[in-house]
Amino acid sequence: MWWNNVETKPYGGYPRFWDIKILSLLDEAHKKAEIEPRWSTSGSGGPEAPYGTYDGLTIFEGAEVDSPQSEIALGYEPADDEWATPNMYEDTATGATSEAGDTSLAPTTLPEHDTWFFYLQRVCNHCNYAACLAACPRQAIYKRQEDGIVLVDQERCRGYRKCVMACPYKKALYRPTTRVTEKCVGCYPRVEGNDPLFPGQPLEPRCMAACPGKIRMQGLVKMNSDGTWAEDRSNPLYYLVHVAKVALPLYPQLGTEPNGYYIPPRWVPRPYLRQMFGPGVDEAIERYSSPDRELLAVLQLFRATQQIIFNYEIIQGPKVFESTRDGKTWEMFDDTAIGYGKDGKEIVRVGVQEPMHHRPEKHPNSI
Ligand code: SF4
Ligand code: F3S
Fold first, then answer.
1. Atom 2 of ligand 1 has which residue's CA nearest to it?
2. 154-184 burial code (b ≥16 CB/10 A, e <16)
3. Inside any domain, residue 16
4. Per-residue pLDDT for 43 more than 70?
5. Ligand that lies nearest to the alpha carbon of residue 167, given by its number in the listed order
6. Share of the chain above pLDDT 70, in %
7. Which residue segment(s) compose the domain that 61 sits in?
């Protein structure tokens, strides 16, 4: 179950302090190479750089600086005690104190909070440049052409643990009892359409389908032959990542091109978020804080069905609400988002305004 964890930022992490440790290694490599890493947001918008360009060392180039020809990527193997406490610092906030020694947290502030924490959901990112795959001397890890899922061939694995060292997200996990490495398999039988629930229809992985918070969406996007995303305006993931630009990769500076994307929390200090999700943070928060009609409708598709939505359509509905934000009028419409499956057939239909159910007086505890 540790393949898929939720940690509390800024203090939590599994294995403990994994991100601080890999970012520190990257910092050291930059110092050694006398390079100042920079993000440039100018000229962004192209399909390969929707949020800007990173001008600095990745974990692969950092390894060249740090120890030429010895390791494929900067990394480390966590010690046993670092794997031991997955929930350490759960729900622990950070906050300004008024005086030295005063442990009280600062009262709520807006728009960013001085006292804050947030949850980071973590699973293998099935990276484009998977460091686990690159580091394995047995070629026991492979990335599937058809869906990009990264798998360990456990027959080939000999437990060398180079993958554990190299994965910057620490999502290749060695199991001492079997002496082979395991990782998230992307629920590939479901993605292939082999789940008896919907025969032949690609389904989202269980972690997505079971999320009661309705925060996860998984999809399959069209690819160009060079591995970049082909334009597909009505695919919900293409829209969220490349058009609305509200979903951002986790620590993109590491250079593996992770395929997990996050909508960043708006109450967290921006420098922390920029370090974690890159320079697209401000634009993403601005967009979803006052979402336009299309974005608000597409967001309703999260967790509306277990089937993978390949395309969507929005049918416009009546205005149902009006408010003011930052001095500007914001209007809400009860539009309907329709999701279509692999075969182009409708699989889900959901309105922006949640339906109201009146319980009958006779049976108040039923609907
Ligand atoms: Fe490999 Fe780690 Fe990327 Fe998953 S997150 S594909 S384990 S490098
Ligand atoms: Fe390769 Fe990792 Fe196994 S490096 S041999 S997949 S433990």
1. 167
2. eeebeeebbbbbbbbbbbbbbeeeeebbebb
3. yes
4. no
5. 1
6. 95
7. 5-95+105-282
